[in-house]
Amino acid sequence: MAIAVLVHGQDMNAEGYDAVSKRMGVSEDPPDGMLVQTAGPAEAGGFRVLSVWDSKEHYERFREDRLLPAIREVIGEEAASGPSDAEVYELHHFQVAPQ
Length: 99
Known about the structure:
4 strands; Alpha-Beta Plaits
């Protein structure tokens, strides 16, 4: 079952997102099971990342194997071990418009 993951970090910004993404090499080697990811500033401040995954297992593997180690290296242990504010939910419907 496909899932969506929505993260809103009040202390996140584009520079931190870009640095962590670069460390993970996601542009050159997209994570297995990730269907789409978007990121941008939140109107109330901070930064949001929305991603859609083939399954919760794909997301959790990515989070443990790539995301958290990159956050630890780029931002610090405190950021990686803090409480997760990720909202994870199963998708009832997912459609991509033809290009």
